[in-house]
Write a structure and sequence with these properties.
The complex is a heterotrimer. The radius of gyration of chain A is 18 Å and the shape is globular. In chain A, α2 packs across α3. By secondary structure, chain A is an alpha+beta fold. Chain A is built from five helices and eleven strands, in the order αββαβββαββαβββαβ. In chain A, the strands form two sheets. Chain A has a six-stranded mixed β-sheet with strand order 8-9-10-7-1-11, with helices on one face. The mean pLDDT of chain A is about 95. The model of chain C has no long low-confidence stretch (mean pLDDT about 95). Chain C is elongated, with a radius of gyration of 38 Å. Chain C is about 20% helix and about 30% strand. In chain C, β51 and β52 (about 970-975) form a beta hairpin. Chain C is built from 23 helices and 54 strands. Classes of the chains: A alpha+beta, B alpha+beta, C alpha+beta. Chains in contact: A-B, A-C, B-C. At the A-C interface, α1, β2, β6, α4 and α5 of A face β8, β17, β43, β46 and α22 of C. Chain B: This is Sarcosine oxidase subunit delta.
């Protein structure tokens, strides 16, 4: 073991939980998607988010052993479990973002730590600090063009790519897991700003929010 | 608004993602206590301000958060190369001057014309050291 | 007010307007009618409106001169309501829409009768260049008074005083090739690149794409040139890899092929963007284009000739005359005299005759012009006067005649008797200047090409120019150049160009032009009637001559002295003429004199488009903690700390009256000192540090020691830069042997993380340690005060016994059923627990605390109370009590410095520099005002001797100052020279209002100096 502290943040049952956008929905509303909506937004709250730090080779081996799929091979790309429910994104040469269904993160961290043994690595649970938004619809790409200087043209941003991007006046993680779906991973404290930005910039596309 | 190639992300990205961190290759003295006040002051405060080739450190702040180095022409703003921390530049004022004098070409930054380093010179230096 | 709706200058047929659609508009209060497809300028000319403005300096009547972006005179103020006001719009670039309301930008009280025109009439000798500097600068104090009136009478429009109803936005674009200009060269280039599969953006500033093809007399494949343009545009519009941006001006060319395009999306439709499906789209949009390569097909601007009174309405550019006739079906007059130095301008006379109006004469400066255009003019029976020029226009509000004389170009002399030709319009052409503005933005200096008598752009890597933009004015050659330059650009991208077949052009023989800029007059330039060079800024040939006589030899100095090219048109028409005149006066050639530099923006851009969506609620990100909603619902006033919104204080309503800040803070302070308060501390930066070398790393970046900090313990740390100056502070806790949690200041979080990475990546990559921000993952609620333990005990399973959970310990357990890390650290000096929970559960924990806290008097407090409480304890705030010039020793924090640590930690060496060893450095002390009612001003300067003559030696300043309800007195922290050795001495604080406050230097710890309360 790496002699680091792990911390299970799961609570007793029946304890109310709030996504980072809880206040935003109340204050700014969440227009229901309609047939006119050319962009649809959906929050996937309460997922497990782990940051992995260390060398690619050791981490890849451990991740494969525990999750059954490996680290993405190239910079700025994603790898997925077969059902798409778990993903790993390259963030830097020694940093990856692992996103799994909510509630799995603590056991997963333990399993990875076991598999990694004395290797040099770090795992950090950041699940409370970020949330994931899905963006789809025919104008999703244009909405992104309004918001980020990253090139989101399919040639430059193929399926399976993921980057850290400037977004309006802040930044976030932008990924494209499928042909039609974009994902934004937002920091909790900036999520209201990003949400308001998306509603404002998406108004002309009749943006809808799935709740 | 520069377009900068991050040697870690292996992509060109917008300047908005980066922050400049001053002159590259400033090494902290190994034994600070052995430095005179003047030597320590030089390390802390004194930096080059060349007209022409300059080596700068940048950080990919909105990105991989890695520090890296940039060889930039301070007149044309052309970025001639970027390279990882710990590596040495392949293009320097000296290497370019050497090649361009051999090639009988005007040295970059010599006048008001913003011609930059010639493609031939840059390619030659890169080839020479590759 | 309604006037006849006939359009006296409108042709029965021809042009690209839609005569079936009539559009009403108002100009200077008069109602007029135009047609769909008109610009405001063409509609005004159709209605015979001669005077559209008053000139900037002399208030002379001015009319429309050009048909495009280069128009210097026809600047209008748009808008029927206050909110819709738009200043400085060029009438030539404003499409007409029904209900458009415009006014002249200049002219007070109006364009027909203008008070300042007296100045203009009295003549130039009253207002030479530098007039304002020389006349109004003395006495200097009066400038503010003069300025008001000068601005009012000059003025360049005004901004709206009510909020804009429209929205604006940005679109980030990326392409392989950006083609700017959709004239012949641009279309050929875009077609070439598009067919080759490259990602292409084609931008053009006009209402319709096609450029000169839209009013060309040439046939392409035996058809009107515009037909070819239509076909190409249709093909381009059908391609996925092509983005067409009409009504889009490339305004700025920035580094590395980053080009800003300003798209006017709805300006042609109405004052505000129309509602579509209940949404108002963006009125205009800034495209932020990152291009691989850029092709400039920006065409050329025709140069007017500079002759006496060349500004009287009715003086137009020859090409503009053709454009108005051929594109808009408008003949801007009845009797035309054309003055030219080249063949191409002959088109204006031919178009005029064909429109059924009279051409009095073509006056050609060349002795023996030869070519197809000349033959065509002769065939129409037009009188051609050779070796001559219009030397002076007659008329006030409209040209009434032209004085024409033989001239000697080389000697710059009128050689014959002037002949007066009665006419109402003078068209002139002195040649064509490639539009080099964008190339100039890249820093490339243009070069003079004697063959085309114009500057052509120098190009940095990745920039290409084609057609007229680089002096290739011939249509067939321009089309071919577009293909060739696009192929060159594609090659640079590593792509290969597919062949494009070009249309047949019926070629015409054109003779050479002659060099003519300023036309000589019988009188010397300084005595002749004004010959205008820069119409927008009223710069005359005489003004430039005077500037050169006064010793301004550099063209950049001439520019600044005369203001030539400083208008909103950046001297698009006048600059080359001005340089030619300066060259003549200095006895130099034009390339020797050189050119000035054009800078972004090419044409004015509305602030809305620059700002985009980053305004109002979205001006700047607002960061919220997980408890933000609680704060809002409980009436918090907020303070901005970095981008965070933090509760500042929580005013209560007492007896129907809302507390003032002073009252609320006093109540909150008492609650903490006497009962228990709660603070949202989630904004503090939190960095997770893991690795076997984490401890070593901490020892190098903090001033104090870390090797012995045990698991379960917390420690305060100070961080310096290598110059020895304090840069951040915070508490770091040992979570496991190789695992630490560092906290930073709220504002310093990102910078500290980057700082740690910097040292790790550059100096100590061998240390095995990682840093990850967990600021947003944890929510932090600080409960502090004598009742804190009792409150926490009710809802936590953690053993809170004072001996097992000591001050500076942390424990894990559950709080309100939620797993928590609780840190027993204190920023108030009271018994304190900082409860950290995963942020998604924070609201539940907060509400549970209040449910149980009521009986203990649990009181929410904000940053203001936090500041008072910490200052009473002498705890510093980095960035408030420090300013980058303060060492740990200056703060009296030697206890926090590990002088004997083995590694020379960051900042250590600097602490022994001679400067940091001085004993008279400014040092942190407490200040106790002699009058307890006084709360000293933060920032107030401190002196030892208030009787000292001014300037007094200032020895320090107040860094923090508050009223303390605990002390019932004002108190302050301050830095004072040598202050730590001056305890008990009196200092003075002279204020701006003459008062001098007295204060005693005391220890910075005002409350509980032994620190007993936090240990209970």
């Amino acid at each position: 073991m790496s002699n680091a502290a792990t911390f299970d943040t799961r609570t007793e049952a029946n304890i109310p939980v709030e996504s980072p956008l809880a206040y935003s929905y109340q204050r700014s509303g969440a227009p229901a998607p309609s047939a006119k909506s050319r962009v649809v937004l959906r929050e996937r709250a309460f997922l497990g988010h782990l940051v992995l730090r260390g060398g690619a080779i050791v981490l890849d081996e451990a991740v494969r052993a525990v999750l059954g799929f490996g680290l993405p091979a190239r910079p700025n790309t994603l790898s997925h479990s077969e059902d798409g429910a778990r993903s790993i994104q390259w963030l830097s040469p020694d940093e990856w973002l692992l996103i799994v269904p909510g509630g799995e993160e603590f056991e997963l961290e333990g399993a990875l730590r076991n598999a990694l043994g004395d290797a040099h690595y770090a795992i950090v649970n950041v699940s409370g600090g970020q949330t994931l938004l899905e963006l789809s619809g025919e104008k999703a790409r244009e909405l992104l063009m309004k918001s980020t200087p990253s090139d989101v043209h399919p040639e430059a941003f193929p399926v399976g790519k993921g980057v850290t991007a400037v977004f309006a006046k802040t930044n976030l993680i932008l990924r494209r897991p499928t042909e039609t779906r974009w994902e934004l991973v937002l920091r909790r404290s900036f999520s209201d700003y990003c949400y308001r930005w998306l509603l404002d910039a998406g108004a002309e596309y009749d943006i809808g929010v799935e709740r | 608004m520069f377009l900068i190639y991050c040697p870690y992300c292996e992509e060109h990205r917008e300047e908005e993602e980066f922050r400049p961190k001053g002159q590259a290759h400033i090494v902290r003295p190994k034994d600070p206590e052995a430095c005179s006040d003047e030597e320590w002051g030089d390390y802390l405060f004194f930096r080059d301000n060349p007209r022409g080739i300059h080596h700068e450190m940048w950080v990919h702040a909105v990105g991989c958060r890695k520090f890296f180095n940039v060889t930039r022409h301070t007149v044309t703003y052309e970025i001639l190369e970027t390279y990882k921390m710990g590596e040495q530049p392949r293009i320097t004022a000296e290497s370019l001057a050497r090649v361009e004098i051999q090639g009988n070409v005007q040295v970059a930054g010599g006048g008001q014309q913003t011609v930059g380093a010639t493609n031939a010179a840059v390619a030659s230096v890169k080839g020479e050291q590759a | 007010m309604s006037k006849s709706v006939t359009q006296p200058n409108r042709l029965k047929e021809g042009g690209r307007i839609d005569r079936s659609r009539k559009l009403g508009f108002t100009f200077n209060g008069q109602h007029y009618q135009g047609h769909a497809g008109d610009t405001l300028a063409s509609a005004l000319l159709a209605n015979g409106v001669d005077v559209v403005n008053r000139s900037f300096k002399y208030s002379r009547p001015r009319g429309i001169v050009a048909a495009g972006a280069e128009e210097p005179n026809a600047l209008v103020q748009l808008g029927s309501t206050e909110a819709a006001q738009v200043p400085n719009v060029r009438a030539t670039q404003q499409a007409l829409f029904d209900g458009l309301v415009a006014r002249s930008t200049n002219g007070w009280p109006n364009v027909q009768r203008d008070v300042m025109s007296l100045v203009g009439k009295l003549g130039g000798r009253f207002m030479p260049p530098g007039f304002y500097y020389k006349t109004f600068m003395a006495p200097a104090s009066m400038w503010m008074t003069y300025e008001k009136y000068i601005r009012k009478s000059a003025g360049l429009g005004r901004s709206p005083m009510e909020p804009d109803q429209d929205s604006y936005d940005h679109l980030n674009q990326h392409c392989d090739l950006l083609v700017i200009g959709a004239g012949p060269a641009g279309l050929a280039a875009a077609l070439t690149a598009a067919r080759s599969g490259a990602r292409v953006i084609l931008a053009d500033e006009q209402e319709e794409m096609g450029g000169s093809l839209l009013d060309s007399r040439d046939l392409l494949d035996q058809q009107p040139a515009a037909k070819w343009a239509e076909r190409v545009l249709e093909e381009l519009a059908g391609l996925d890899n092509v983005t067409l941006l009409p009504r889009t001006t490339a305004n700025g060319y920035h580094d590395h092929h980053f080009v800003t395009l300003h798209e006017r999306r709805t300006e042609h439709l109405g004052e505000t963007a129309p509602l579509v499906d209940g949404h108002r789209g963006a009125r205009s949009r800034m495209h932020r284009v990152r291009a691989g390569q850029v092709l400039l097909a920006t065409g050329a601007h025709e140069r007017p000739l500079v002759y006496a009174n060349n500004d009287v309405p009715g003086n137009l550019l020859a090409g503009a005359v053709s454009t108005y006739i051929r594109r808009y079906g408008v003949v801007p007059g009845n009797k035309l005299v054309l003055s030219t130095s080249n063949d191409h301008a002959y088109r204006a006379a031919l178009d005029w005759v064909e429109a059924g109006r009279e051409v009095v004469a073509i006056v050609d400066a060349r002795a023996n012009p030869q070519g197809d255009w000349i033959d065509a003019a002769k065939a129409k029976g037009i009188r051609i006067i050779t070796g001559s020029a219009v030397i002076e226009a007659k008329g006030e509000k409209r040209v009434s005649a032209a004085r024409v004389a033989k001239i000697d170009l080389a000697a710059f002399k009128v050689t014959g008797q002037a002949e007066t030709l009665v006419c109402d319009t003078i068209a002139s052409s002195g040649g064509y200047s490639p539009v080099i503005h964008l190339a100039s933005h890249t820093g490339a200096r243009p070069t003079w090409n004697e063959e085309i008598l114009g500057f052509v752009p120098s190009l940095v890597k990745g920039v290409h120019a084609a057609g007229s933009a680089r002096g290739i004015h011939d249509l067939a050659a321009g089309l071919a150049d577009g293909v060739a330059m696009a192929s060159q650009a594609l090659e640079a991208l590593g792509q290969s160009a597919k062949a494009v077949e070009l249309p047949q052009v019926d070629s015409r023989r054109e003779g050479a032009a002659c060099a003519l800029y300023q036309v000589p007059h019988e009188k010397p330039t300084l005595r002749a009637p004004k010959q205008f060079v820069d119409l927008q800024n009223d710069v005359t040939a005489g003004g430039i001559e005077l500037a050169t006589r006064e010793g301004f030899e550099s063209i950049e100095h001439v520019k600044r002295y005369t203001a030539m090219g400083f208008g909103t048109d950046q001297g698009k028409l006048g600059n080359i003429n001005g340089m030619a005149i300066a060259a003549r006066c200095l006895g130099k050639s034009i390339p020797e004199v050189g050119t000035t530099v054009f800078r972004p923006n090419y044409t004015p851009v509305t602030f809305g488009a620059i700002v985009g969506r980053h305004c109002r609620d979205l001006f700047d990100p607002e960061r919220y903690t997980a408890l933000h909603q609680w704060h809002v619902e409980n009436g918090a006033e907020f303070e901005d700390v970095g981008q965070w919104k933090r509760p500042w204080y929580f005013p209560q309503v007492v007896n129907g009256k809302k507390e003032t800040m002073h009252e609320a803070v006093a109540r909150e302070c008492r609650a903490v000192r006497e009962k228990v308060g709660i603070l949202d501390a989630s904004t503090l930066g939190k960095i997770d540090i893991q690795g076997p070398d984490a401890r070593e790393f901490l020892g190098r970046v903090y001033t104090n020691k870390w090797e012995k900090l045990a698991v379960g313990k917390c420690r305060y740390g100070l961080m310096c830069k290598d110059d020895g100056m304090v840069t951040d502070d915070g508490v770091t806790s040992c979570l496991a042997e190789n695992h630490f949690l560092m906290t930073t200041t709220t504002g310093g979080a990102a910078a500290v993380l980057e700082w740690l990475e910097l040292w790790h990546q550059t100096e100590w990559p061998e240390l095995n340690v990682t840093f990850t921000s967990v600021t947003d993952h944890w929510a932090t609620m600080t409960i502090t005060g004598p009742e804190a333990r009792n409150l926490l005990a009710e809802i936590s399973d953690i053993d809170l016994d004072r001996d097992s959970f000591k001050f500076m310990d942390w424990r894990a357990g559950k709080v309100a059923g939620v797993p928590a890390r609780v840190f027993r650290i204190s920023f108030t000096g009271e018994l304190t627990y900082e409860i950290n929970v995963q942020a998604n559960y924070a609201m539940h924990v907060c509400k549970t605390l209040f449910k149980h806290g009521e009986k203990y008097g649990l009181t929410p407090y904000g940053t203001e109370t936090m500041h008072v409480l910490r200052a009473e304890k002498g705890f510093i705030i980095v960035g408030q009590d420090t300013d980058g010039s303060v060492t740990p020793e200056d703060l009296g924090m030697q206890w926090c410095v590990g002088y004997d640590k083995p590694y020379s930690w960051i900042g250590k060496r600097a602490l022994t520099r001679s400067d940091t060893r001085r004993t008279d450095r400014k040092q942190l002390v407490g200040l106790k005002p002699k009058d307890p009612k006084v709360v000293l001003e933060e920032g107030a300067q401190i002196v030892f001797d208030p009787k000292h003559a001014i300037p007094m030696p200032m020895v320090g300043h107040v860094t923090s100052s508050y009223y303390s309800p605990t002390l019932d007195s004002g108190f302050a922290l301050a830095v004072v020279k040598g202050g730590q050795q001056k305890m008990g001495e009196t200092v003075y604080l002279p204020m701006a209002d003459g008062q001098v406050h007295e204060a005693e230097i005391v220890s910075p710890i005002f409350v509980d100096p032994k620190g007993e309360r936090q240990n209970v």
